[in-house]
Amino acid sequence: MTETEDIANSTYDVVVLGAGPVGENVADRTRAAGLTTAVVESELIGGECSYWACIPSKALLRPAIAQAEARRLPGLSASVQGPLDAAAVLARRDYWASDWKDDGQVGWLESIGAEIHRGHGRLSGERTVTVTAPDGTRKVLTARHAVAVCTGTRAVLPDLPGLEEVRPWTSREATSAKAAPGRLVVVGGGVVATEMATAWQALGSRVTLLVRGKGLLNRMEPFAGELVAEALTEAGVDVRTGTSVESVTRENGTVVVVTGTGDRIEADEILFATGRAPHTDDIGLDTVGRKPGSWLEVDDSLRVTGSDWLYAVGDVNHRALLTHQGKYQARIAGAAIAARASGAPVQSDPWSAHGATADHDAVPQVVFTDPEAAAVGLSLAEAEQAGHRVRAVDYDLGSVSGAGLYGDGYRGRARMVVDLEREILLGVTFVGPGVGELIHSATIAVAGQVPISRLWHAVPAFPTISEVWLRLLEAYRDN
Asked: Which of 103, 150, 203, 316 could tie 180 with a disulfide, CB 3.0–4.6 Å?
């Protein structure tokens, strides 16, 4: 057998391209429906989230946040004034990233009866995927019912001359680095940029954050970015908004950044957190009439527009670039694939078993900075742009008893966006320490379209930060 000779064609009901959390969940649902399922992966089973994103980043951030919160408590603050033990934090990060070994994830996929094919998978025609293994051998997988593309996204680097020679960090290097750089420049103002600035500043780096726009976290309510920027500055991060990068070089091991205002900044490393692109450039989209490197447009059952067999689940469809939302889509897609395979009707009504309605109306997100920023649904600006007649109700989180008990000097803010015609919530935003644990209650209110008259009877326990719900409702009633 030669290196390029095809071995026997294998046929499955479903072929899943990509074994991150999204692909794993598609496989779980199709296997639960009794469909034979193959999963193709060229890197580690478990994907970006498990090894270079959600899991390692939160492992880096948790000690930083815990220390910041402890410093706000008399009786404890004096005990936590020293620096973090960076080596211990990184060791715990390594544990949570499974030391970049995927044995556990492999075992789980095998336990549900999915068959794993290691190698680079490319579409090679309708319902067909060709897998090139690391040793160069190829196998052709044919799907009776569906191929699900779950290949996620990759970091985008700006078009700057000589950038490759600088060896910049992307999110992968930022979450897997073995030591804290003495000086770190972070370029960007979104989630990755703010979280990594938080983590590495706490681990001992001197961080400069360069933001092209006017502020941070521009997909959230404006006050979220303002409060996070204020806290980052107080923590020692040099936050510079309205600042572009004109050139980057590495001179004798030192990164030299020249900004649009002519400032020269020297650092040991530079992280570009400037966006994501679909990981679809080399998966054979051209063989099925699609443009390589493109986002894949889908309907609410996650089936690619114009196809009756191709699905795109998770980041690749650009609906919501979040792991939890991709896993939600995977459950929807798996149910829809199973229904179509059995000849059962596919439900198309909003909030049905086969439609990813939450992608439009109830997407939650938490940014694990200090303070945390958490939001679900529409911001005020988004609701107004969509033509809703709305009212924003704001409340100072620091004046809630539970927040004051949580930590001295608690600073935060809450907003609910009320649809005045139906008196339901279209969106909710919380900013403050510990608010990530509040956002699911808001998600239930938004996704469930719970009337405000009913929310009055959802009594928050005293004294918790959740008491802000009562205060928001009182503010809506009284004004």
From this structure: 203
Residue 121, marked binder = yes
| pLDDT score of 65 | 97
Cα(441)–Cα(34) distance, integer angstroms = 34
Reported as a single tens digit per residue, the pLDDT across 179-200 is 999 999 999 999 999 999 999 9
Q: Is 436 annotated as a binding residue?
A: no
Residue 190 assigned to a binding site: yes
State the CATH number of the domain containing residue 463. 3.30.390.30
Secondary structure (3-state) at 182: coil
pLDDT of residue 8: 63
List all residues 6 or more positions away from 252 whose beta carbon is below 8 Å from its beta carbon.
none
Give CA angle at 109 (119, 276), nearest 5°.
Answer: 60
Same domain? 316 vs 250 = no
Q: Which residue range forms the structural domain that includes residue 342?
A: 6-46+102-154+278-358
> DSSP code of 13?
E
The answer on whether 189 is annotated among ligand-binding residues is yes
Tokens representing residue 52 in the block: 């270079």
418 is in an annotated binding site: no
Question: 418 vs 68, 390, 424, 472, CA distance in Å?
Answer: 33, 5, 6, 11
**Within a domain: 65:** no
> Which of the four pLDDT bands, split at 50, 70 and 90, describes residue 1?
very low
> Are 427 and 413 contained in the same domain?
yes
Are residue 208 and residue 306 in the same domain, yes or no? no
Q: Is 315 annotated as a binding residue?
A: yes
Q: Is 287 annotated as a binding residue?
A: no
pLDDT-derived band at 285 (thresholds 50, 70, 90) equals very high
Question: Does a structural domain hold residue 376?
Answer: yes
75 located within any domain: no
353 phi, psi to nearest 5 deg:
-70, -20
Per-residue burial over 311-338, b if 16 or more Cβ lie within 10 Å, else e, is bbbbbbbbbbbbbebbbbbbbbbbbbbb
313 annotated as ligand-binding: no
275 annotated as ligand-binding = yes
Are residue 10 and residue 144 in the same domain, yes or no?
yes
> Is 407 known to sit in a ligand binding site?
no
Q: Is 192 assigned a ligand-binding role in the annotation?
A: yes
Q: Is 199 annotated as a binding residue?
A: no
pLDDT at 373 over 60: yes
